[in-house]
Design a protein that fits this description.
The relative contact order is 0.14. With 207 residues, the chain is α+β, with helices and mostly antiparallel strands. The chain has a domain at 75-193: Glucose Permease (Domain IIA). The protein has helices at 2-19, 27-55, 57-71, 188-193; strands at residues 81-84, 87-89, 92-94, 97-100, 106-108, 113-120, 126-132, 137-147, 154-155, 160-164, 174-181, 184-186. Helices cover 33% and strands 29% of the residues.
C-alpha cells in the first residue's frame, strides 16, 4: 500500500509538470504590474485622507484660520511719521524705514511668526526679528528701548513686542521697520498695500 501511494504521487506530479508549461515572467512586466497596484493604492489612500479631512470640521477650521493668519497684517505703531523712507538716499540704499514716534510708545507684531532674534545688534540697537515660514517673510524692528519678547517665542499680529527708543544709531526716538520676502528687502509701503494698509500715512485702511 505504501509503495502504491508513492507511485500514485509520482504519477500525479509528473502529469502536473506536463500540464503546466514552463514560462518566464518578464521583469519589466512584473514591475509595471506592481507599480500600477502601488499607484492605485496610493490614490485610494489619498482619497480616503481627503474625505476624512473634508468630514472633519476641526481640520477645516484650522486650515481656514491658518490661511487667514498668513494674510493678516497690522501697522507696527498706531501713530508715527516716516522720517526715512525705503530705498536710495544719497550714496546708500535703505533696506527699511525709520518711523518717528514718542519715546516709550509700544510697537506690535505686524504679522504672525516666531521671534528669531531679540537682542542688541549694533546700529539697530535693541532689535527684534520675526519670521513666518508660511510666506517666507521676515519683519525686523530696531532702535527699541525695551524688548518684551524672547527668541523662540511665537507671537500673533497685534502682540506687543517692545517700546520705541533711540538705541543704536538713531537721531531720536524712532522704530526701524523692515520687511524681507525670501531674504530680499521690500518696500513696506508697497508690500502692505496689498493687505489694505496705508503705511506711508500711518493709516490702517486705504479708504
Amino acid at each position: 500500500m505504501v509503495t502504491t501511494a508513492f507511485i500514485g504521487a509520482g504519477v500525479v506530479a509528473t502529469f502536473t509538470q506536463l500540464a503546466m508549461p514552463s514560462t518566464t515572467v518578464d521583469p519589466s512586466t512584473l514591475a509595471a504590474v506592481n507599480g500600477g497596484a502601488s499607484a492605485d493604492t496610493d490614490r485610494q489612500q489619498q482619497a480616503q485622507s481627503d474625505r476624512a479631512s473634508r468630514s472633519d470640521p476641526e481640520a477645516q477650521i484650522n486650515s481656514a484660520l491658518d490661511q487667514a493668519a498668513s494674510k493678516l497684517w497690522l501697522l507696527p505703531v498706531d501713530k508715527y511719521t516716516v522720517t526715512e523712507p525705503f530705498g536710495p538716499s544719497g550714496t546708500v540704499i535703505r533696506q527699511g524705514c525709520e518711523l518717528a514716534a514718542p519715546e516709550g510708545t509700544p510697537f506690535v507684531a505686524s504679522h504672525d511668526g516666531t521671534i528669531t532674534l531679540a537682542r542688541y545688534n549694533g546700529a539697530l540697537g535693541y532689535m527684534i526679528s520675526l519670521s513666518d515660514p508660511r510666506d517666507s517673510v521676515t519683519v525686523i524692528y530696531g532702535h527699541a528701548g525695551k524688548l518684551l519678547v524672547h527668541e523662540g517665542q511665537q507671537v500673533h499680529a497685534g502682540d506687543v513686542l517692545g517700546t520705541v527708543s533711540n538705541t543704536g544709531m538713531a537721531w531720536g526716538p524712532s522704530l526701524y521697520f523692515a520687511i524681507e520676502v525670501k531674504g530680499q528687502a521690500v518696500n513696506p509701503d508697497t508690500y502692505l498695500r496689498q493687505f489694505g494698509l496705508d503705511f506711508k500715512n500711518a493709516n490702517d485702511g486705504l479708504g
